[in-house]
């Protein structure tokens, strides 16, 4: 399974939207260089308030570009980086990956998938009603989260828009993604 990096984004400040750039540098064990969420321990403000010593399982946020097509069909215009992701992908079913999947980004970088992004009300501050587009329920009433996945950096490197992504699944049995 493979795909492409459609865009990369980062922000040095706590902003919901992250500006797109030509490339980002991933730092092993830390995240995206010059991004506010870079670090060994949690950087998301709500998680810092609960326990600032928690490990940062949300170093790199990835969203599939195909989600933006779903948004457009529902009347929303959303582009890369606008809902806070660092890497926008194309051609990979990110939400269907199991926990522990390795994503090889470009020539060097490798991230390990830790779980699902748990979307919050800030998404509605960006566009009213968008939160309902990234949260749903299956036939059994279980919450379905569609706002992308989170990962940690195992091997650092530079990631450019247009780079190939190679997916390496973990050994069986696969564990479905849970919110992190």
TrEMBL record:
SUPFAM superfamilies: PK beta-barrel domain-like. Transmembrane segments: none annotated. InterPro entries: MoCF_Sase_C, MOSC_domain, Pyrv_Knase-like_insert_dom_sf. Residues 19-168 form the MOSC domain. PANTHER family: METAL-SULFUR CLUSTER BIOSYNTHESIS PROTEINS YUAD-RELATED, MOSC DOMAIN-CONTAINING PROTEIN. This is MOSC domain-containing protein. It comes from Kibdelosporangium philippinense.
């Amino acid at each position: 399974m493979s795909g492409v990096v459609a865009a990369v984004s980062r922000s040095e400040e706590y902003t919901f939207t992250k500006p797109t750039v030509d490339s980002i540098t991933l730092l092993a064990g830390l995240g995206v260089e010059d991004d506010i969420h870079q670090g060994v321990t949690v950087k998301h403000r709500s998680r810092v308030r609960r326990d600032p010593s928690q490990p940062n399982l949300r170093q790199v946020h990835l969203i599939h570009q195909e989600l933006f097509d779903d948004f457009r069909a529902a009347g929303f215009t959303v582009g890369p980086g606008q809902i806070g992701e660092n890497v926008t992908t194309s051609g990979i079913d990110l939400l269907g990956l199991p926990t522990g999947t390795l994503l090889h980004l470009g020539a060097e970088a490798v991230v390990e998938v830790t779980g699902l992004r748990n979307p919050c009300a800030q998404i509605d501050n960006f566009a009213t009603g968008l939160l309902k587009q990234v949260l749903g329920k299956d036939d059994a009433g279980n919450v379905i989260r569609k706002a992308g996945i989170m990962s940690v950096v195992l091997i650092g490197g530079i990631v450019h828009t247009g780079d190939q992504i190679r997916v390496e699944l973990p050994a069986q049995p696969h564990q479905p993604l849970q919110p992190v």
